[in-house]
Design a protein that fits this description.
Blueprint lengths: L3 H19 L3 H14 L4 H13 L3 H14 L4 H13 L3 H22 L1
Helix pairs in contact: 1-2, 1-3, 2-3, 3-4, 3-5, 4-5, 5-6
Length: 116
């Protein structure tokens, strides 16, 4: 479990990474996202950012590894499964992409039903 100072440090690196990513500095953003996750290994927002940066750099295996880590930490994270679907599709892994898209779809349906 993270302590408050670790979460603050993680958030500082996360926001720095967001700025770098927005400026098109993907490699530097990756470094900041990694520092964020190092400070708080449960910070899934930073992991989502890292996975997206890896995707944009076409480092698909690393992006898949991070997206799988998110799904392990939070199996109900729709975005993690959607990201995995996209990443598998980019790698030509169609059955895996379809399976992850289906997981995301079912999770979204469950979320919608809970709102009723």
């Amino acid at each position: 479990m993270s302590t408050e100072p670790n979460r603050q440090l993680a958030e500082d690196h996360y926001y720095s990474a967001l700025d770098l990513f927005a400026d098109g500095q993907h490699e530097q953003a990756v470094a900041e996202y990694c520092k964020s996750i190092e400070a708080d290994p449960t910070f899934t927002e930073a992991m989502h950012g890292l996975a997206r940066a890896y995707q944009d750099l076409e480092r698909y295996d690393e992006a898949i590894e991070i997206a799988n880590r998110i799904a392990q930490l939070d199996p109900d994270d729709i975005l993690a499964h959607t990201s995995l679907s996209i990443l598998y599709q980019k790698k030509g892994m169609v059955p895996e992409a379809e399976a992850e898209a289906n997981k995301a779809r079912v999770l979204d349906w469950k979320r919608q039903l809970k709102k009723r």
